[in-house]
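Extended Data, panel c. Modelled sequence:
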Amino acid sequence: MAIPFRSLAPYHTRSTPRNGDTWRVNFSRVQWLHDVKDGGYRKRVGTPEFNWVWSPQGIVDMHAPERWGYLQFSQQRAGESAAYTAPAWVDAERYLWEIYYRQQQYRRKSGKYAASLEILQIGKEGFDVDMESTTRQFSAVLKQGKRTIIIDHEGKITRYE
């Protein structure tokens, strides 16, 4: 399968990855039991689907990009070993997703987003993070050296370096 990098440009800061760049991606397949009837395929009623993903997500929901696997690009030839190096932002983004999930839970209960990390009962965990919220939206901004990572109420992650 070939996917032109330029078609992915709207979803990443660069359309062509560099050696060592890491993207979160998901490759999944859903398969149903089926029967051939009248020359066509028919899903077998009352049977479950089979879900396969290339990296464990912990949930059956392919629409959770924060749980997708990491794909690291390399200039090494296929078959040659290349050591995986986790990007510096992995722990920071995991922390921001924790804020996101706690905000969603808080909003379901109270009808608004929490105004502080203290209300969410989450510490700064050593990160330089600020959060702003209104009744209808929030954003958390985490600074990590020259990198700034933002998560918003829709779960959109934005990175600036």
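DSSP finds one helix and ten strands in the chain. This feature is highlighted in the accompanying rendering.
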